[in-house]
Fold:
Amino acid sequence: MKKIFAAALAAALALLGSVSVLAFDHQAMFEGMDADYYTRFQGQDISINVYNWGEYISNGEDDSLDVNAAFEELTGIKVNYTFYATNEELYAKLRAGGSNYDVIIPSDYMIGRMVKEDMLEPLNKENIPNLQYIDPSLLGMPYDPDTAYSIPYTWGTVVLIYNTTLVSPDTDVETWDLLWNEDYKGNILMFNNPRDAYGIALKKLGFPLNPENQEQIDKATALLKEQKPLVQAYVMDEIFDKMAAGEAAVAPYYAGDALTMIDDNPDLAASFPREGTNIFVDGMCIPKGAKQKEAAEMYINFMCEPEVGAANCEYIGYSTPNTASLELLDAEITSNPTAYPSREVISNATYFSALSDDLNKALDAGWKELLADDESFTFWLVPALLLVAVIASVAVVVRKARKKKRESY
Amino acid sequence: MKKRSWVNTGYIGLVMAFLYAPIVVMAVFSFNESKSRALWTGFTLDWYKKLFTNEVILSSLGHTLLIAIISAVIATVIGTLAAIGINAMGRWMKSLVLNTTYMPIINPEIVTGVSLMLLFVFIRDRMGIPLEMGFLTLILAHITFSIPYVILNVIPKLRQMDKNIYDAALDLGCNPAMAFLKVVIPEIMPGVISGFLMAFTFSLDDFIISYFVSGPTFSTLPITIYAMTRKKVSPEINALSTIVFLVVLGVLTLSNYVEAKREAKTSY
Amino acid sequence: MKRNHAETVLTSIPYLIWMVVFTVIPLLLVTYFAFTDETGALTMANLSAVREYVAVIFRSIWLAFIATVLCLLIAYPLAYIISRAPQRRQRTYLLLVMLPMWINFLLRTYAWMTLLENTGIINRLLGIFGIGPLAMINTQGAVVLGMVYNYLPFMILPLYSVMTKIENGLIEAAQDLGAPRSTVFSSVVLPLSMPGVMTGITMVFVPAVSTFIISRMLGGGSNMMIGDLIELQFLGNAYNPNLGAAISLGLMILILFCMSMLNQLNEEDKEGMII
Structure:
């Protein structure tokens, strides 16, 4: 008995011990970096809270670079990394208060909204020298005209993903109509956040990606309600497993993730609907009141290092805004039409812009209405049920009174 | 008579199968080579390896245990003292306090979670105390929902206790504190222990309330698991659930065995 | 000579303070938020907005109701059978019933997700028999299944604890007096088990009506329940704490109403005891 136990323990230890050594050579990478700048906080036991999208950083899987681990190794600053699923969730968490984040990575329109509502710290660009590498065409955009609050992290587009084995070959896959196609009822996934979902509906109706008035929002809400019975689920990152397993046939999602999914399941393919799609930039920002502003700026600067940016974007599949990183990437990646679309596609794509307060409220209301929508429900159930409740209470009271009367004999 | 017991055992078996099917499936697929949750491709211990080196999961496990122990201890102390005090109250006061105590138990967890979150944010914003969502808020929240369970377990024991014992101890020369320690505590100990265990268990497994009052620096295991289910899923989750299952099985079997031995000893 | 130790009440003071700060005040805050808007002005707008979500509220109540009934139907015979089993076996059965309860609730729900998916185990097994893939996940049925699975032990335990107190002697006496099985059940077992039934219903219905994990993981986001709605307002895609507080208040009142109804049906005079 003892022998077997010892053998089992040894086997377990051997297995555990064989956990692979870092497959990515950090030291070689660090050589090109400014050591004085990065090691300023060594030994001071500082930590920063980074709040990012899920599946949005290279984390060491499949021999890729573990960005956070590399950063910790170089600077001695610990990274507490948590994630959110949508811009709106990030916004809610920041507004609800109580949580202190040092780096957040919202999308363009959300950055615009946060700037308006004074929720971001202005960046000290002297602390972020690697800003020089960022493509100038992605700077000074309407949501952050002076590049005062954000540094681009990635850019990309929204694409239509479909499973070639589940979608018949003669179906038109270059249109948003595919998401309303009755043939695929129950096999359609949809965005679980208001801007992306409404963006698609508005484009399908021929309206601009950013709603201009209440009427457009109402029409889009009606269209989304029509789609609801056909939708299998409203998802964000849950989509990875679903598409990989062939659980659903069509879904819209972000180009970088589409590439990851296609890698996992070669049956999948992506297309750009001809009605036009959304192009976005995600930017790194520092929320107001962050405790470790300088360390946060160091993190942002680290992300803009050519090698880090290249390794990161290679893993997550999104397009890099960093010109130096672009040069380091394989031609295979940079020539991929999904990740780096043609000029034609880009000109047909629109950025989200921050909406006015009224339109935001209207969009929110429409979204909630859509989620709560239940066609099998009629308003008459309410008084009916209230009546039943009242009758039940009366019956119980009467029964009790009668029982009391009986017992008092 | 035999036929009935056949049906009975069959029914029990059916329900047990229902209860255990998902757990067993999860366990089986924790050894699966590919990430697929339905197609078996080969045997591997990789996921277990990855689990043991997953810093986030390990640290949140540690956090969870830490919070559970600390909050359970504090809740037991406060709750036991409370139960003793409540038991000595007048009828009207007792009823009022007891009903308010049972509010967090009846209240849906989400309402408790939301109300505590609003409280902490209020303290931070309006009162200027720099309270951050994290370790402190979690402990406070866990203590808050644990205390009622302790009270719930101790009060029946207090009621069962013969009140005269305490007076007898005083008569025999003890001061109130000693009388309390030597006489009352041993009587209510079973209730205190079961209250402690309840508090500990509920704290370990709590998700909803923790979800609303936690922050980025301090995560508990249920919250980490929830985050894991929202993105690309790794069979590490299967490995985790299998390990949890085995640990719980071990603990419960052990406690069962101990209790069976104790009962055998006391019944002659 | 019964002495009155009034000073013993003082030991409960720490708790009373805690209770006020962490239970009463937060609930008052919820009420405050429910009746104000973002600027702090008093308004009834939140409450009237709740009216729009009546469909969600009803769906939650309906699904929770079905889940509770199913739990009751499954657990009742089980508790009875276990309580009549030989002592040694009873302990083992109890252990087996309690074990799943101790495994993290998220893991249990996640386990069902893997089983119910279109390409999941159950569908694959059915596929062998040529039965087409059934859409089981992301339906209301999946949500009810999740609820029943998670809360079944909470129904079994109270029922069991009450049934063990029904002595075999009582049942035998009824049978000796010539009562058929059905009467034994309706006149002896059922009334005596009522306290356990009430407890069980409470412990299943309340979490079922307010869950948001089960509806999110198994319902696909299109079967929204009250819990989802509340979470949406605070930490989800639509930040509106006032509306969220209003819905929470509504939920609390709903639960209190249901509890008081249940208490009226339960005629035994208990001092607010639930377990």
Observations:
- The two ends of chain C are 33 Å apart (CA to CA).
- The domain at 53-274 of chain C is CATH 1.10.3720.10 (MetI-like fold).
- Chain C has twelve helices and no strands.
- The first helix of chain C runs from residue 13 to 34.
